[in-house]
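Model: Ready when you are.
Researcher: Fold this.
Model:
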Amino acid sequence: MSVDAIIFISIGAAFGGLVNGLAGFGTGLFALSWWLIVLPPTSAVALVVVLSLVSGVQGVFAVRHALNWPRVVRFVIPALVGLPFGFAMLAHLNAGMLKLLVGVMLAMFGGFFIAKPSFNRLQKEHKLADSAVGFIGGVLGAFAGLSGALPTIWSALHNWHKSEQRAVLQPFNVLTLSVVLLGYGWRGLLDHAVWLAVAIALPTSILSAQFGIFIFQRLSESQFRQILIWLILTSGIVLVAGEVGGLLRVVVAQ
């Protein structure tokens, strides 16, 4: 592998690991643009899944005291049900357009949270809605690698402490993406190039995630909420910019 490829893979791992360690999501959103420069799309997405799991396991350990397993199960079981639907949709729908729609949704919600920082957050449990969010997250995880997008927004609507939010997002993503990774392996997407990229990215990803967790543990509730809101907005902008850029490249090439 070339020196340029090693540098870009390491930079992506640094950004993705830091954001995931800090906020509990975002590895793909903040790393994929770097990895796509030097890796084929399928290898880059597979690398996102592997390193999301690496960062996610570290995050789960950091908030293990706040784990609420009945709440986690309400999200995860429907997500696992949704995964086959997501895999089935791969051959029939345009993943790029779906990512564009999810990006717009993230940007709109992020903008709303910034414009209305003191809105009344949900105080009660909404078990049916939790399950619906988990199911859609599973579909999006298999179809577009975006399992954490909707659960992140949903958790931000609640009056949960920062550890409570992380204690939902991290195990949800870890368990969901573990099944996605098995699906990728079954489809033959985990080839030698992917594991070589993993070996290059792993040290930087682990160190960056630990630094992100270190920052997370020292943030106040209000500071974490503000960072999460801005990351939701930024994630939406990154997704929209990436998909619009891809569409423009196709138009220009034609």
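Researcher: Now this one.
Model:
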Amino acid sequence: MHPRLFTIDLFGHHMAVSTYGLLVAIGVMGGIYLGYRNAKRVGLRTDDFLDLSFWGLVVALASSRLMFVLTNLDRFRNDYWKVFAIWEGGLVFYGGVIGGCGLGLYLMWRRKLPFLRSADVLAPMLSLGHAFGRLGCYMAGCCWGKACPKPVGVEFGQQSVVYENLVARRQIDPAVSSTTAPLHPVQLYESLGEIVIFTVLLHLATRKRTDGTIFFSYLALYAVLRSVTELFRGDAARRYLFELPIAPLARLLRLPPGEPLLLSTSQLVSILSAMVAVGGLYWLKRRADEATATLP
């Protein structure tokens, strides 16, 4: 775990290059490159795709940060400038999806782009970028997991977000311990899951019958992944609609028995996303079957 790669001395000021920011940047650039190639392959105008990617990224970052800030106002009351320190972590993915999709819909309507075909191009790049983003979370020590026995558990050091957070909450005495207790590396779980989703989407892209299949498949697959990884999340930034501990499931997963497993805000959004995805895939299948039936 290395929150900072190195420090640059710039005109007497020390600027730290964060691993989180670098990995997010790599994921974004890799995703845009992949999307650009796919856009050319399926006949989308590349200028429109690049505009859509750029402004979608800007709005997604802003909206994901805004949702994090709104759900954690107590962390910023004494230092408002921290609101802009996204390189330290603190983005809510579903907030970015909502903001980015809203802007994407507007730009697609304004430029008369085919929505489902464009969404199919964007889905794999979103999955790839998110995989790198979660690696950045791991390196920064944010979005951490619940307590976990070794050898699976990971201990985060003094410069990590989780260590500083637990010290502030008086759950760690820095005079006694220089690391956290072993925690589930849930950031790596989600990153690996996103790579699997990315691979599945690339496979589906070679076999799809109609536009929209990739997009709705991504919604369904990520909804399942996020619902599962939420069970292992332990960071205090998460919010529950209601707290429901399930002792038998906690024992099965070797999680602390008293902590809630359901129902977080992200789990609710995942359920809604899954419903939209299943409905969308069913609608696409019906439309494809009807089109096949009308052929001579």
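Researcher: Key takeaway?
Model: The chain is about 60% helix and 5% strand.
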